[in-house]
Specification:
Elements: E1 4-11, E2 25-32, E3 37-41, H1 48-56, E4 63-68, E5 71-72, E6 83-86, H2 98-108, H3 113-126, H4 142-154, E7 161-165, H5 173-190, E8 194-198, H6 201-207, E9 210-215, E10 218-223, H7 225-230, H8 235-240, E11 247-250, E12 252-260, E13 263-271, E14 278-282, E15 287-290, E16 296-297, E17 299-305, E18 309-316, E19 319-326, E20 336-339, E21 345-348, E22 351-354
The structure holds adenosine-5'-triphosphate (ATP).
Length: about 350
């Protein structure tokens, strides 16, 4: 296992990149702790695979260095980096049994037989494959095959890191939850440095201690799930994390007041006059609807009942505002919205100026 240092990393697929927009991965400096569980999260095309391929050695970055511990591995091939990788689709030998598939990476590395037997038996148990252990992989389901792929990565104990590239894509939804939880447990038990690429926020937030959120080639925030929820550093993070995401409302901010359309709301802190693209960010969980005199009138567009709570989608003078209400809470006929002042974050040019509390 090793700490991984990304030192001034950047990558362009063009031979002579000129502008920032030419870079699929914009400059990044970061240290990933030894034994940490990280997720790379972002929409399609944001640069997750580019970064993962630089870490695994499939791609040499246009700029910067990557270090495992104190060793500069920037120019090393994947097989020289001592990493395990699990891909979207199962990579296993169909003609081997489950057990033989799991033994294979260890046999290849000349691990002593008694150690192989022990580790493989443990892994078979962890993956709940005891009753299939001596069956050929060929006849197994896609879920089971992918479990073997995960096992082939996890069974190796001497690796610098284990990289997962959307590993649960082929897994059915119920099993996804089980495997996610299992991966988290395994991380606690084994202590490997793990990097998990996904565009699914639930996967990222349940698996990782730290989530690296990427947007248009840029790492816009690295934080714990709580940090991403409470203080998104960028409006994209606010919008992307949460279900529904944060409400982002164009406004004018000055002193302790934000003007949204024809309304003024009070803020918990004093701000300099924000000249450019000021926005108020408020999570739907901290928006209330009332029929009283106070608040800003909205038009309700839809109400979705999702069991324990409901999502009210409304329009505030043309800007979308969502509210999450507890189960059974009424939606007034002429509703007005209010925001919990301590939960209002202020953004300028998409970047957080200050959180509410
Ligand atoms: N081999 C390549 N040549 C040129 N451009 C590429 C290449 N690979 C990726 N890109 C571009 O780089 C950007 C980042 O792509 P990347 O595959 O890293 O994103 P991603 O977040 O992993 O997306 P996805 O989730 O769809 O795999 C995209 O604009 C993509 O079109």
């Amino acid at each position: 296992m090793a700490k991984i240092t990304l030192d001034g990393l950047a990558h362009s697929y063009y031979p002579n990149p000129k502008t920032d927009a030419d870079f699929a991965l914009k400059e990044l400096n970061y240290e990933w702790d030894d034994g940490g569980a990280y997720a790379l999260l972002g929409p399609s095309g944001c640069g997750k695979t580019t970064l993962l391929n630089i870490i695994s050695g499939l791609l040499v970055p246009s700029k910067g260095n990557i270090l495992f511990g104190s060793e500069n591995v920037t120019e090393l091939q994947p097989e020289q980096r001592n990493i395990a990788q699990v891909f979207q689709f199962p990579v296993i030998y169909d003609t081997m049994t489950v057990r033989q598939n799991l033994e294979f990476p260890l046999v290849n590395r000349q691990v002593p037989k008694n150690e192989i037997d022990k580790r493989v038996a443990d892994m078979i148990q962890v993956l709940d494959l005891e009753d299939k252990a001596d069956r050929k992989a060929r006849g197994l389901t896609a879920d089971e095959k992918q479990k073997i792929s995960l096992g082939r990565g996890l069974v190796r104990y001497d690796v610098n890191a284990i990289l997962f590239d959307e590993p649960l894509t082929v897994i059915d939804p119920h099993m996804k939850w089980q495997l996610r939880t299992k991966l988290k447990d395994l991380h606690r038990q084994l202590g490997h440095t793990m990097i998990y690429v996904t565009h699914d926020q639930t996967e990222a937030l349940t698996f990782a201690d730290k989530v690296v959120v990427m947007y248009e080639g840029e790492v816009v925030q690295i934080g714990t799930p709580e940090e991403l929820f409470d203080e998104p550093a960028h409006t994209f993070v606010g919008y992307f994390i949460g279900s529904p995401g944060m409400n982002i409302l164009s406004s004018q901010v000055k002193g302790k007041t934000a003007r949204i359309g024809s309304h003024e709301i009070n803020l918990a802190h004093e701000y300099r006059a924000l000249e450019e693209n000021a926005e108020v960010g408020i999570r739907p969980e901290f928006v209330t609807l009332s029929s009283g005199k106070t608040g800003m009138p909205v038009q309700v567009k839809s109400v979705e009942d999702i069991g324990r709570f409901k999502i009210v989608r409304a329009s505030l003078e043309g800007q979308d505002v969502n509210a999450v209400l507890p189960e059974g809470a009424p939606v007034p006929a002429d509703p007005k919205v209010s925001f919990d002042m301590s939960r209002i974050n202020i953004y300028e040019n998409s970047h957080l100026v200050r959180r509410g509390a």
